[in-house]
Write a structure and sequence with these properties.
By secondary structure, the chain is α/β, with parallel strands linked by helices. The protein has 2 domains: 2-152 and 313-430, FAD/NAD(P)-binding domain; 159-306, Elongation Factor Tu (Ef-tu), domain 3. It is 31% helix and 16% strand. It has helices spanning 10-21, 62-72, 76-83, 96-109, 138-148, 193-205, 226-231, 283-290, 315-318, 343-361, 374-382, 410-430, and strands at residues 2-6, 25-29, 53-56, 85-86, 91-94, 113-116, 128-130, 153-159, 162-164, 173-175, 186-191, 258-264, 271-274, 301-303, 306-312, 331-333. α1 (10-21) runs parallel beside α10 (343-361), α2 packs parallel to α10 and α3 crosses α4 (96-109). The longest helix is centred in the last third of the chain and has 21 residues, at 410-430. It starts with a strand and ends with a helix.
């Protein structure tokens, strides 16, 4: 039996790997290098188009729990992330190119995977997993729309700028992680009240690049452009990505008025990204306004922030908890187009869609990932027909089944939920899913 996987992003490569590891022949279709979306720049698979961080790595954090579940289940994406890790305090961040190169190497060298470099413009007959991401080509988007007979919803995502490490003025910055957690992996660029207010004034009036159909209300809150946040109030950024809490400026011994944090973006520590600075300002305006940050007054920008359109399905009306078409279980979808938001969540959807598809084609019982697990909770969220206003969702403890007993302290409660989940995951793995 052969299964087609469309798209070699995080979800598609994870799906292809899981199928292949179960002895199933896979045809993996990827339109690169012949055609790229506006946000993609390389020819490699699993390209990270926004941050290089897979977010928190502690199991008391929901995304940390999701990573640990995938890690125990031999996830391709998590194993490659662990192998190309760069220091980022309590987060799992990766060398962007090294990570993508490793995923590509593993996929192309797997004996059960055949990579076909061409664009798919129609929904294939099953068995198939479509994981073309939030930047699905126009032709396939129209085909999927016709397939379901329903309209898409759209939102916009944004990527932060990158600067060279050597161009950051360290006389105006210092190394520290918030609350001194872990190692001091962030470069902190402080602003006083006068500098911050001048920065905000220029930021909210800066000229934006043209983005067809853009409306502030349609921007997903988890990846909102920094200029949009600034328009919501003078202090919005100080309570968001520029919050100074947990940081002490060694020059003053006090908490700064506002802080821009830079995070390592590659293993060589030569490039850093502006944390939380997703934007769709014109490139010249980014240079002008972001250079108002004292430590970045001479910053060399190696990539400016970009804004691009993302597309996702009304999944609760269309898909089941295994990301499969309710009408045809041999046609499944995975990744951000299903309404999961985030790198790890995308990989998790590809994992579950593939595990379920493998069971179907091999005529085995589909393993049950219950709501007590992060992997299962995500699948149940995107397939919950009771949701009236469906929006993309990062994994969080609110969608995971609560404990039967009450634990008042949040950290202890989350840890108990995580331990319960991992026990279920270990049991599933022992059954040979």
């Amino acid at each position: 039996m052969m299964v087609k996987v469309i798209g070699a992003g995080l979800a598609g490569t994870e799906a292809a790997w899981q199928l292949a590891q179960r002895g199933i022949s896979v045809e993996l279709y990827e339109m690169k290098p012949h055609k790229k979306s506006p946000a993609h720049h390389t020819d490699t698979f699993a390209e990270l188009v926004c941050s290089n961080s897979l977010r928190g790595d502690k199991i008391e954090n929901a995304v940390g729990l999701l990573k640990e579940e995938l890690r125990r289940l031999d996830s391709l994406i998590i194993s490659c992330a662990d192998a190309t890790r760069v220091e980022a305090g309590g987060c799992l961040a990766v060398d962007r190119q090294g990570f993508s190169d490793l995923v590509t190497e593993k996929i192309r060298s797997h004996p059960n995977i055949t990579v076909i470099d061409e664009e798919v413009t129609e929904v294939p007959e099953g068995p198939v997993i479509i994981a073309t991401g939030p930047l699905t080509s126009d032709a396939l988007s129209k085909a999927i729309g016709a397939y379901f007979g329903s309209d898409y919803l759209h939102f916009f995502d944004a990527a932060a700028p990158l600067v060279t490490a050597e161009s950051v003025d360290m006389n105006e910055a210092w190394w520290q992680s918030r609350y001194d957690r872990g190692t001091p992996d962030y470069v902190n660029c402080a602003m006083n009240k006068e500098q911050y207010e001048a920065f905000i004034a220029e930021l909210i009036s800066a000229e934006e690049a043209e983005v067809h159909g853009f409306e502030d209300k349609r921007v997903f809150e988890g990846c909102m452009p920094v200029e949009v946040m600034a328009r919501r109030g003078q202090d919005t950024l100080r309570y968001g990505p520029l919050k100074p809490v947990g940081l002490v400026d060694p020059k003053t011994g006090k908490e700064p008025y506002a802080v821009v944090q830079l995070r390592q973006d590659n293993a060589a520590k030569s490039v850093y990204n502006l944390v939380g600075f997703q934007t769709h300002l014109k490139f010249g305006e980014q240079k002008r306004v972001f250079s108002m940050i004292p430590a970045l007054k001479n910053a060399e920008f190696v990539r400016y922030g970009v804004m691009h359109q993302n597309t996702f399905l009304q999944s609760p009306n269309l898909l089941d908890k295994y990301y499969a078409d309710r009408r045809n279980p041999l046609v499944a979808f995975a990744g951000q187009m299903t309404g999961v938001e985030g790198y790890v969540e995308s990989a998790a959807s590809g994992f579950l869609a593939a595990v379920a598809m493998a069971a179907k084609v091999q005529e085995r019982e589909i393993p049950d990932f219950p709501k007590e697990t992060a992997i299962g909770a995500l699948g149940l969220y995107i397939s919950d027909g009771r949701i009236e206003n469906f929006q993309p969702m990062n994994v969080n403890f609110s969608i995971i089944a609560p404990l039967e007993q009450r634990i008042r302290k949040k950290a202890e409660k989350n840890l108990a939920i995580a331990n319960r989940s991992l026990a279920i995951i270990d049991e599933l793995k022992n059954k040979g899913i």
